[in-house]
Amino acid sequence: MTMTVVDWWAQVLGAAGDVWALRAPEVLELGPRASIPVAAGVAVLAGIATMIGHTVVFAINRVTGLRMAAGMALGALYLTVLRSLTAVVIALLALTVTRGAVDGELLAVVYLLAVAPHLLAFLVFIPHFGLVIGRLLEVWTLVCLAALLVHVLAIGRLPAVAIAGAAWLTGQLLSHLLAKPLAVVSSRAWSMATGRDTFITSQDILAGAPFVPLQREEPTT
C-alpha cells in the first residue's frame, strides 16, 4: 500500500518520539527496506533543525548572504563526512560482535533513527547555553543508539553501550583530526574566492560553532 505524505509525517514523528523514549519504533518491525523512508525522514528533519539553529546564530551575529551560505554548506559537509565515518565504525564493530550476523541496511536505519534527539537542535541558538545543549543532544543520541542496538542486534546492554561508546570516541578523534585541516582549507578557499582575509580556527570547529569564514578584524591604532 502506498504511503501518503500524512502517513509519512505521522510515522516519522512517531518514530522520533519512540527513540526519544528509548523504545524501538514500530516501523522497524516492517523490515529495514520499508523503514528507510521513515528513518531518512528523521535524519532529514534533524539536519533541518540543526541548520535552523545555526542560521539564527548567523543572523544574531549579522552574518548574512554569501558568508552565511558558505558557512552552512561547509558545516553540512563536515557533519556529513564525520557521521558517515562514524557509521562505518559502528558497522565494523557490530559485525565483530555478532560475527557477521548483521544486516547492513538495518544498521543504517538504526543509525539514522538514533539522531532523533537532534530534532531539537534548533535550540543551539540560545545564548550561553547553545553549546551545552548541543553536547547534551550528542549524549542523548549516544544513549538512543545503544538502546536501538540492543533491540536490533539482540545483544546485551553492555556490548551495545560499548559499540556506541567506541563510535562516539572515534567521532571525537576524527573531529580533532579534521578540525585544523578544515579550518586551513576553508579559509584559503574563501580568501581565493573573495580576496578577503579570513579565518576559521580549529577551536571554533571543535566547539561546535557554525562553520563560517569570518573576516579578520584589524586592530585599531
Structural write-up:
- 71% of the residues lie in helices and 2% in strands.
- It is mostly helical.
- The protein has a two-stranded antiparallel ribbon with strand order 1-2.
- The protein is globular.
- α3 (65-98) packs antiparallel against α6.
- It contains 7 helices and 2 strands.
- Mean pLDDT is 80; it is low at 204-221.
Count of helical regions:
7
What's the average pLDDT?
80
Global outline: globular
Ends: how far apart? 71 Å
Based on CA atoms alone, the radius of gyration comes out at 19 Å
What structural class results from the helix and strand content? Answer: mainly alpha
As a percent range, the share of helical residues equals over 70%
Strand order of the largest sheet: 1-2
Q: Which structural traits does this protein have?
A:
single chain; 221 residues; mainly alpha; two-stranded antiparallel ribbon; 7 helices; 2 strands; globular; disordered C terminus
List the helices and strands and how they pair.
Blueprint: H1 5-20, H2 32-60, H3 65-98, H4 104-114, H5 130-153, H6 157-194, E1 198-199, H7 202-206, E2 214-215
Antiparallel strand pairs: 1-2
Helix pairs in contact: 1-2, 2-4, 3-6, 4-5, 5-6
Task: Please sum up the structure shown.
Helices cover 71% and strands 2% of the residues. The chain is mainly alpha-helical.
